[in-house]
């Protein structure tokens, strides 16, 4: 599908309304006239009917939640990307509800996290929800097989502790039926994962947490009604966001900086995937920047514009920052939720806005053509590892730091020293570029804080945007943008040495560390193949201390 940008400010109101009407009625001609592409897109527009489809299912979901409530103390939701980010947001925004099981999202294959969950929960009182649209997601299936085996080893019948959420007819559904899972729920086949927040993907976890599903759908319905094409364009809540994003993109401002109330921070991760994976392809893209520490206007480049999502009653949280940004001529939109349930309305606003933005930009917002690059590389490296017991990789060693590293051919240096490499990496970055810091490390608050500080350092010295993601989470989120979007990104991947013995993934003859490392190295090679400048830094077992030394190295390298 070739990109053909339609600039909304140069379209008539009737033309824009007609485009929006096509999206809301499930007409793929909003995006393309090519027959093959139209057929593909037609099977990805079911999300526009989510409210009417889900209302009849409220009683079923609520009844199941009551059943679970009576028999379990913990729920571990296993999923990646579109199957995990909205449940993660709900869990943090609403928190534990009285009388309902504790709800944890597991969207990593990190061995430390797997081990901690195993230690903290009572397997007999834990329900595992295995959420994978395709039924083949490697991280999710590995989690499922590992915990299934742990239950068997403990003499506990596993089937009654597992629930599947997957497409009808998927390999996971077949296995769940054969193994006697407690329940199988269907992911709607005509809805892609990142557009599925208002389907079973969002409402099943909401029910299990004890949330009011009718209220959630009513809020979503209100936003659909506030986004109808019959409304004057300037009063259309979703359409205006789409125009805001597209017009800035056309003007070369491609860094959509999303700030939120701290209570809504994980919702920004859901938006990040929606924007990056939907619009980052064909060498174009809108680059979502989330999770930064707020700064003064002087640290932001001219390629930025801002959206803030907050809670009513807490408007003063960033009032001074908003005033400073506007004074410095940065565009800023602010949205304030009357209550936490309006997060379901925001799903509608952003899904419609991003889909409409895709129509304006001439991209298919429902595919992710470049994600497969890393998957293929990962499979290749794991296959090699299973044959030889080794990965086909040899790191340079920075002897002063005791840290290994690799660099892509696009990042040429005369001699392999990490300090020289990092300095050159930033010296060659264009003013409109951005840096992706990609950490295949445990997703812990302390590490998140470290990388937030590193992002602040880079932004302050280079006035550039930074994106941070824990691996493998980002592979299912921003990874499409990194490999298929604009060429302005450059990347640093972080891994650490495994600790033996690690947990074996049943039936695979590999550990979780092996899988995680293969994904990291696979993405390094996929980014290199896509001609993106990329460094792979391999830390030791005591990676926390190595990171402290790396911060000093980055600080020195950025003194240009």
UniProtKB/TrEMBL annotation:
This is Glucose-6-phosphate isomerase. The lineage of its organism: Bacteria, Pseudomonadati, Thermodesulfobacteriota, Thermodesulfobacteria, Thermodesulfobacteriales. InterPro entries: G6P_Isomerase, SIS_dom_sf, SIS_PGI_1. GO terms for cellular component: cytosol. GO terms for molecular function: carbohydrate derivative binding; glucose-6-phosphate isomerase activity; monosaccharide binding. Its EC number is 5.3.1.9. One of its GO terms (biological process) is glucose 6-phosphate metabolic process. It catalyses: alpha-D-glucose 6-phosphate = beta-D-fructose 6-phosphate. It comes from Thermosulfurimonas dismutans.
